[in-house]
Amino acid sequence: MNDLDRLAIDVDEVAEVAGAPAPPVPRRPEDLVTVPDTPYAPDFWHGADDEGVGGHRPHYR
User: Fold this and answer.
1) Positions of the region Disordered (predicted)?
2) Are 11 and 17 in contact (CB under 8 A)?
3) Which residue from 22, 4, 2 is spatially nearest to 12, judged by alpha carbons?
4) 3-class DSSP state for residue 22?
5) Beta-strand (E) ranges in the chain?
6) Residue 8: how many CB atoms within 10 A of its CB?
7) What is the structure's pLDDT at 44?
8) pTM of the model
């Protein structure tokens, strides 16, 4: 049993105590969405700033 299994057990117990239904857990591969790690085309990012590291253009107020 790993940490995720233990966490799932704890979440189920808390949900029972709180009276809330447990969240659905994906059980089948078709329930999961695969996100490719291929880069987007450069024109997709035209005019966008990197919010995490700051923009590349000056901001005017």
Assistant:
1) 19-61
2) no
3) 22
4) coil
5) none
6) 15
7) 86
8) 0.30
Q: Which two tokens stand for residue 44?
A: 């997709």
pLDDT digits (tens, 9 = 90+) for 29-43: 776 778 889 988 888
The CA distance from 9 to 6, in Å, is 5
C-alpha radius of gyration, the chain, whole number: 21
- The structure tokens listed for 58 are 């000056």
Within 13 Å, how many C-alpha atoms sit on residue 21's CB side?
3
- Residues with Cβ within 8 Å of residue 11, at least 6 apart in sequence: 22, 23
**Whose CA is closest to 8, among 20, 22, 19, 18?**
22
Q: Please compute, for residue 54, the number of CA atoms within 13 A of its CA located in the half-sphere on the CB side.
A: 4
Tokens 């700033």 belong to which residue?
49
